[in-house]
Amino acid sequence: MTVARPSTPASYFHLLRRQAYARPRRPLIVFTPKAMLRLRGATSEVADFTHGRFEPVLDDNRIADKSAVTRVLITAGKIYYDIIAELEKRQDVTTAVVRMEQYYPLPIPEINGVLDQYPNADLVWTQDEPENQGAWPFICLELAKHLSGRTIKVASRAASASPATGSSKRSAQEQVDLIEKALAR
Fold first, then answer.
1. Nearest to 81 by CA among 122, 131, 126, 24
2. Do 147 and 115 form a contact (C-beta atoms < 8 A)?
3. Nearest to residue 73, comparing CAs of 92, 54, 46?
4. Each residue's pLDDT tens digit in the chain (185 positions)?
5. Which residues contact 110 (CB under 8 A, 6 or more apart)?
6. Which of 56, 80, 124, 158 could form a disulfide with 107 if both were Cys (CB 3.0 to 4.6 A apart)?
7. pTM: predicted TM-score of the whole model, two decimal places
8. Is the peptide bond before 109 cis (omega within 30 degrees of 0)?
């Protein structure tokens, strides 16, 4: 089985293409929120479809000096675009945002290959969902074993029985608080 959460149309295309050619075939579970259909940042150039392949982990291409990074946010899905917008607004180049496009099976060599470029940085898993939901329980149990002694923290909404607050005003405030928590030192 493969569980993925692509963040661009091209990534989704290459994931489906990989699935079509894979032998033996395994089930594919893809998380794709509707909000990304309307998101201007979640687009791909035509060349992205014709070249490349599905990448289970995507490094932050904004970072020129990787040794200056003090915090690495590992994330997936729509929240990536919210974090990047805030980092650009703050002109922060000491925080890298790594996208995990595939959850299962965990792409350990790819994750460690990217994270090894940031040896002195704190690692923070960031998600939209409450702490007791989403990918964090899996990441906490499975990924933490493979981080070579490094620890990973979480930045998410407070644990809750429901994934939604029921109030758009409260949800918007929680989103602002979540981004602030993820970027706080």
1. 126
2. yes
3. 92
4. 999 999 999 999 999 999 999 999 999 999 988 888 888 889 999 999 999 999 999 999 999 999 999 999 999 999 999 999 999 999 999 999 999 999 999 999 999 999 999 999 999 999 999 999 999 999 999 999 999 889 999 999 999 888 777 788 988 899 999 999 999 87
5. 55, 56, 57
6. 56
7. 0.93
8. no
Place of tokens 């960031």: 126
Contact present, 159 and 130 (Cβ < 8 Å): yes
φ, ψ (nearest 5 deg) of residue 111: -65, -50
Q: How far apart are CA 80 and CA 143, in angstroms?
A: 19
| Domains of the chain, earliest start first | 55-183 (3.40.50.11610)
Length of the chain: 185
